Amino acid sequence: MNEIRKTLGYMLNTAFRQKPGLFIIYFLMLVTTLVTKLQAIFLPKLLIDQVVAIIKNSSSKENIRLAILYAVTIILLTFFMSLIHGICVHFKNLYKEWFNEYFEIKLADHAMRMDFEHTENPDALNQMSKAKEGISWYSGGVVGILDAFYNILTNTTVLFGVAAIIIISCPLLLPIVLLSLAVMLFMNSKTNRLKVDVFKKLAKSNRVCSYVFYQLSDIAYGKEIRLYDSADMMENKSREFSNRRINDWKNLGKKQRRNSWCVDLANTVRDSCSYLYIGALALKKKITIGDFSMYISSASTLYWSLASITSGLQDISKRCSYAYQFLKFLEYPNVMRNGNEPIREGNHEIEFRHVCFHYPGTEKYVLRDINLHINPEEHLSVVGENGAGKTTFIKLLCRLYDVTEGQILVDGKDIREYSEEEYRSLFAVIFQDFKLFAFSLKDNIVAGETIDSDRLERALKLSALYEDAMHLENGADTILYKSFDEHGTELSGGQKQKTAISRALYKDAPIIILDEPTAALDPVAEYEIYRQFYQLVKGKTAIYISHRLSSCKFCDKIAVFAENTIKEYGTHDELVKKKNGIYAKMFAAQAQYYMENVS
Ligand code: ADP
Question: Which terminus, N or C, of the chain has the lesser number of Cβ atoms within 10 Å?
Fold first, then answer.
């Protein structure tokens, strides 16, 4: 109940703040529906009574005049009400589109701003999938919920009108209608419960299916799928989850059919009883033929308005419980403390003090007792085996995760004290799994900052991408990938990496981090990039992660990660001389290669 109240409040509030015009549309729809429904009960009675009088007494001019008046009123009212209603529905559908987009953007915005750890948490991802489906076609969004609300309101008003007629003129109809209604309500509530259960089950299979389908059709994965012959695997996976979905729907359909048969039976009994009762009244001449028609349509209107109110209540609660998933996602707990200390200008000093860390939801420590000091403008190289915790170390420094124990200090202050936005502006990071968007090359590099052509040209030149960019069909305005634009381009692995490097250079942040973004380059090209990069970022603090130790030579300090901690720390010359040292061994293993390739 709380869910429904909360969702309803949120939806009404959102509609009122974003598009108050929607309420005018609903008001007009309410008026047109009421006029149409009530006139369909009263006017035919008046018309029929006049027609019967004309048949009995063919010369009565007054009867003919009134019959024509009622007939014309029925025709004109029906025409104009349906015309206005149609226009309202058209505008309502436009609002619906607008709200669909509004919620999609809101959801995406929240997904981009929530704590980073949620993006690696299956529960949060599942919640996001439920939110997406719940707010769109399952609930119909704001308009779906307001539709249900409007149906309840319209039918309640109609109900009062017809209930008054029935109670006054043929009260026995009431229990007959109520009984058949009770059967329908019971069956409908069973069906709704079934639907909500299926929806919950479907959330996971929908997420897997859309992931698999996305990858099947995404050309970016085309190579992996072909070379690893993964097409069959992907198809099998999608078929498996698709079958699961189909089975869920099939089971739902079977149970739903059983319920609807019971409702049909109850309706047949109700109609038979109503005709018998009103027919008996007519035979006893207690009512006119016009009354007969009015009572019959009142009985059916009473039933359908009551049915619509109750199914409307169930419908609104069902829609709200779907849409509530969206609110739940918006409220997904952000656990990171956001301070408000400003970051000072200039270069910065970084310190890791007894830092330990395990990922949320896991127990195994990935980093233990990390102690490290990075001076302003210092260049640090981080090396170590796969899985040693190097990327995690960077994630902690960038505050994508908070440390489990210990502290990270920047300029002597715990990083949790800084405003998150300001703190993140300190870093330009190129992760090994960096992503480029299917937008223009320029958009990818500028990445939301203000566009400055000189700065862009400088970043392109520094990352050695300028020449390549100028040879593209539309220069830096060329769209990457073919997802949105048939003239889009597919950059080579090296060009993509240079684009990511340009993006970091364009940001011009005081701390630059390279987390093996050059892995796709050959060792000589990588050596060149690091050598140039070292020059480019002189005067800034820089942290490099690389498997290839040639890059370490340019750095002031090297931290060797092993067994979840820093095992060795020093300059290249110090570490390379260390007997049986990890770094010395790694360097010796790779040195031969560099002797041959790098002068
Ligand atoms: P490296 O960069 O040195 O290869 P990582 O920092 O990526 O190492 O990973 C260190 C350890 O943390 C690995 O055992 C990895 O499986 C684990 N790990 C990485 N990311 C996550 C995550 N999101 N959740 C749980 N464990 C993770």
Answer: C
Report d(CA 54, CA 70) in Å as an integer.
Answer: 14
Find residue 379's DSSP bridge partners.
Answer: 542
CB of 467 closer than 8 Å to CB of 433: no
Residue 362 Cβ inside 6 Å of ligand 1? The answer reads yes
H-state helical runs in 19-138: 21-56, 61-113, 122-133
Do 571 and 558 form a contact (C-beta atoms < 8 A)?
Answer: yes
Ligand 1: centre distance to CA 397 (Å): 15
Q: What are the distances in angstroms from CA 427 to CA 398, 496, 533?
A: 7, 20, 16
Nearest partner of 38 among 150, 151, 161, 149, judged by Cα: 161
Determine whether 409 is exposed, middle or buried from the number of CB atoms within 10 Å of its CB (0-12, 13-18, 19+).
Answer: middle
Report how far ligand 1's centroid is from the alpha carbon of 120 (Å): 11
> Is the Cβ–Cβ distance between 430 and 509 less than 8 Å?
no
Contact residues for 167 (Cβ-Cβ < 8 A; gap 6+): 174
Name residues whose C-beta falls within 8 Å of residue 594's C-beta, 6 or more positions apart in sequence: 523, 527, 550
Q: Which residues of 121-154 are buried (b: 16+ CB within 10 A; e: fewer)?
A: beebbbbbbbbbbbbbebbbbbbbbbbbbbbbbb
pTM score, whole prediction: 0.67
- Burial of 232: CB neighbours in 10 Å, binned 0-12, 13-18, 19+: exposed
CA separation for the pair 358, 353 (Å, rounded): 16
Structure tokens that stand for 367 in this block: 């980093």
Which of the listed ranges 114-123, 365-374, 421-430 does the model predict with the highest average pLDDT?
Answer: 365-374
Which position has the token pair 């209603």?
A: 85
CA–CA distance, 3 with 533 (Å, rounded to integer): 54
546 closest CA partner among 433, 463, 432: 432
The two tokens of residue 301 are 């209107």
75 burial level (CB within 10 Å; 0-12, 13-18, 19+): exposed
List the one residue out of 527, 445, 431 whose CA is nearest residue 480. Answer: 445
Measured from the CA of 117, which atom of ligand 1 is nearest? 23
Q: Which of 101, 97, 99, 86 is nearest to 16 (CA)?
A: 99
The tens digit of pLDDT for each residue in 519-564 reads 666 666 667 677 777 777 778 899 988 777 777 777 889 999 999 9
383 within ligand 1 shell (Cβ under 6 A): no
Question: 386 alpha carbon to ligand 1 midpoint, in Å?
Answer: 9
The β-bridge partners of 407 are 353
CB 200 within 8 A of CB 194: no
3-state secondary structure at position 563: coil
- How far is 293 from 169, CA to CA, in rounded Å? 13
Helices and strands of the chain, counted as H and E runs: 18, 10
Count Cα atoms within 13 angstroms, Cβ side, for 459: 27
Of 182-196, 313-327, 385-399, the least confident: 182-196
Both tokens of residue 530? 């690091």
The three-class DSSP label of residue 512 is strand
For the sheet with 405-410, list strands across it: 367-374, 350-357, 405-410, 413-414
Ligand 1 mean position, distance from CA 359 (Å)? 8
Contact (CB, 8 A) for 173 and 166: yes
The one-character DSSP state at 479 is B
